[in-house]
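I'll show a sample.
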Amino acid sequence: MSNQIRKFPEGFLWGGAIAANQVEGAWNVDGKGLSTADVAIFKKGVSKADYKKHNKVDEEQIQKAMSTETAEDYPKRRGIDFYHRYPEDMAVFKEMGLKTLRVSIAWTRIFPNGDEEQPNEAGLAFYDRLFDEMHKNGIEPIVTLSHYEMPLYLVNQYGGWSNRIVVDLFVKFSKVVFTRYKDKVKYWLTFNEIDSIVRHPFTSGGIVPERFENVEQTVYQALHHQFIASALAVKYCHELVPGSKIGCMLTKLMTYPHSCNPKDVLKASKNNQFNHFFTDVQVRGEYPRFINRLFKEKGIQIEKQVGDDELLKAHTADFISFSYYMSLVASENSEGMEKVSGNTIGGVKNPYLETNEWGWQIDPIGLRISLNELYDRYQVPLFIVENGMGAYDKIEEDGSIQDDYRISYHEQHLEQMLEAIEDGVKLVGYTSWGIIDLISYSSSEMEKRYGFIYVDQDNDGNGTLERKPKKSFYWYKEVIENNGLLAEEKEAAIR
């Protein structure tokens, strides 16, 4: 074993991540409008294997949500009441030692319908208070402009991101928040997991499938609009926020071939290539050539305006942020093979990996491979902005929560992050998802818990909302204090 002490770089941004639609609550407070997230329901009795059905949205569900004036059955409407409790939460985050916190701005707090002439001052003032409180506690904000929520009015009036007009409305929103918070926020992200629009058109793009004759064509056209909006956001962020850095965000879906059969290897290679399509556009500034064949085979034609290609090329992301939870396995013929679920997508079971309670395969080494792949391909700084494990947590008789499984998950991933840094990868930060228990994006559950901090609330919204540190809270606090040195590294340092 080498005597060299591996360590994270000085100034490494240790933190946590949350999203407005999963924590804020206060869905109808201070002028906030109805968003796509406010349509998401929790369906009791749905098995873990079928949890994706929770997020399937159709016309009937939208109409019902629009006429429903309570948060009952709509967990994202209540969140964990972060809107009112954020000072308490920031104090706890400070105790943990967070250097940074990834949050998002709810578009519907700033422009309730999305197309108003003037922004909602009450919404702007809330984020002023939030960012001030973060700085008061020594926490650097990282702000996502679009994190799985958009004004529902834009969905019904314009067809969501399928309509080019939404680009202009999003840019207006972006310019308002850049101008308002230019002295408070230096790190920004454009679209959360921009690739997810191809899997979840409504959640990510405000596209209701039954309203369109050719959904796939609509989705890729909407994606192009998001690419343009992202490039314009980069442009105006650089112009309006001195010293700012703005990144893109990808769901990293590491895929292995099921066997060394060249057909399996080719399928896995194509899956990985497609996963990089989204960052190719946002970081290299152009559509990759391989996507042309896919579009040709599917009969997809992207309508571009004059100047779109030049815009993409001129305003590329400063860094790549991404989520990493698990890896996948691909086979040319998967019929009869055991399948597993995952974060927004499933696949063939990998016999070499353990799975969590929701069937997600735990693969820390896949994170190292992903980091090397991304850095080798793009040569820009990388930032892991989501990584974590959902689990049922049990409160012991003494009131403690002994979540050693969560500690083990994170320790294994930090180990592989260190390995990747030694490989030469420029990794600048890590924000665990979610730093505090919140409403699950995929299933709208509360009891699928990710946090280092327990929140007393069940799937039906019952509970005191009391915040309680878990065992992992103290572990992560020590990680941050030691800049991520693992046990063996600390022992070597002492020796």
User: Anything to note?
Assistant: The radius of gyration is 22 Å. The chain has one domain: 13-494. The chain is about 40% helix and 15% strand. Residues 13-494 form a domain with the TIM Barrel fold (CATH 3.20.20.80).
